[in-house]
Amino acid sequence: MLKSSYHQHPFVLRKYQKWPWLDSIFGRWHDVIAETKPAKAMAIKPHSKHEKQLVTGRGRVAVPPPRRVAIVAVPPVRTLDVFGPAEVFADANHLNRGEPAYDVQVVSATENRTVTSYLGVPLVADRTYHEMRQPVDTLLVAGGEGAQQMRLSPKLLEWLRRQSGKARRYGSVCTGALVLAEAGLLDGRRVTTHWNWCQELQQKHPKVKVDPRPIYIRDKNLFTSAGVTAGIDLSLALVEDDLGGALALQVAQMMVVFLRRPGGQSQFSATLMAQARGRRSLRDLLAWVADNLQSKFSISTLARRAAMSPRNLPAYSERKSAKLPRGISRPCG
Amino acid sequence: MLKSSYHQHPFVLRKYQKWPWLDSIFGRWHDVIAETKPAKAMAIKPHSKHEKQLVTGRGRVAVPPPRRVAIVAVPPVRTLDVFGPAEVFADANHLNRGEPAYDVQVVSATENRTVTSYLGVPLVADRTYHEMRQPVDTLLVAGGEGAQQMRLSPKLLEWLRRQSGKARRYGSVCTGALVLAEAGLLDGRRVTTHWNWCQELQQKHPKVKVDPRPIYIRDKNLFTSAGVTAGIDLSLALVEDDLGGALALQVAQMMVVFLRRPGGQSQFSATLMAQARGRRSLRDLLAWVADNLQSKFSISTLARRAAMSPRNLPAYSERKSAKLPRGISRPCG
To answer: How far does CA B221 lie from the centroid of its chain?
Structure first.
């Protein structure tokens, strides 16, 4: 079961004597990771013809790892829009076997390194955009509840145009898309933003092709994502592009993420809505089902989990519209 | 379909003319929320007999809203451990129709308001623990990659004991549990922490009953959670306790959360592990299935989504162990 390098694996910091089943979980993880194709030694994969020219223009050697990731905080910033992506890249560094892959920089969108957050506590950036003159590999603009109301300085917009033109890829988390749009960087591109601000983005910038559904969208070298937690999904996808699926998986497990949402996943989670109906035990049952798709369900097992009688469960779930999956309410063979 | 108060709902900041289907989604959400039983006007529900005495001791009137939530940042703090919970409580304030329910305070565990984070950028707390003399309603200790190595000052431990003794509830996110254990606050209690530090917690503190499985555990008025994103699940549960399921649901949707994990959910997501196998399209298919449990699946629909032929998909998924849900590989009726 256990492979030779298993106990040197970053996941296995010590032997789990008390919980032998934990050892077996790590063993299974290790098998999965060992099977996954490793990334091609930090090669920068161009995403498109357009981008290939861009990358080649600067020369591949000119951007050795660690790659500079700039996360631009526009006040009053939503802290998770900044720190969700930042922690994904930082964990990727940590898990990349002592070879930092990213140089993560939090960049203030004002002339001051201290950025107000909508929580009240300020956030201290590594530098202001003025001080950030070096080329950037990945530029992400983080938004917040107020990014769309802010009067953005023409200098910042000019800096964004210059940096995104040179970067391998750029994009936004949440209402950061409104800032990129203000800089004219989204015209004619397919983008998304937090569902609550899609209409505003579309009305202010009619040339932008806004799609309010997906968790994130990639249009050539432009990546835009929905709000808050979606920034984590987007960043995991960027890490996978750079360092391969195995590392992205380890980062996701370190962050105790439930599942990796693909770009096409809807911002309007049907599972979350189904969980809103009916009693708490039924909601918890739905979460359990979503994590145990491969189990063989029987109405009696499920009813026991929901602390209901096997006769009541299907009827109750029908009545509350928190319908059980089809395979469950009418079990197969 | 649309109810009278629907357009005054905080979700519906404007009319979605361009995407009429968005209007219908909000309408459905509104129906769900309207159906959900409202919370009993901010009443502090005691969780147990023990706690009832505690609450009654201070008197119900003595803790009017906003309730003080103190999130203690122990350096080098993991930013998401602090800001995940902080944003949940802040969003609850924002969505509670102009009546702030919480007074969220980020508290430094050192004598300095500036707390180092493991990302490098510092975090500025509202106050240090010295300056936090007021009673607290909810005390949460946020951890980080270094919390377990830090030499904690006896004064901080004494402060934690004093504050948690008076608080209605207290707990930890991630390795914050190691700090609470150091203060002797977990002896004899059932707790969890990030899977990577469970063994360490158990070895250092043999009296603590560590369970490395759950996302979070509630033991009377003590709440401990797994790492990073699990802090969001825990905080949503606390908001639900205080303000009801409808508001917790709105917060989850505002944060674009995929599903609300109950405490009993495993830290080791089977769905995440299944996503690690096989090609990307199959991984994305699994995420889609988890969000569409109520759809009627056919092999041909699924194969089209995974860009595979209907004949290859089941065989491929068997071979890669990324097995499709049973109801799918052998469809019913």
So the answer is: 16
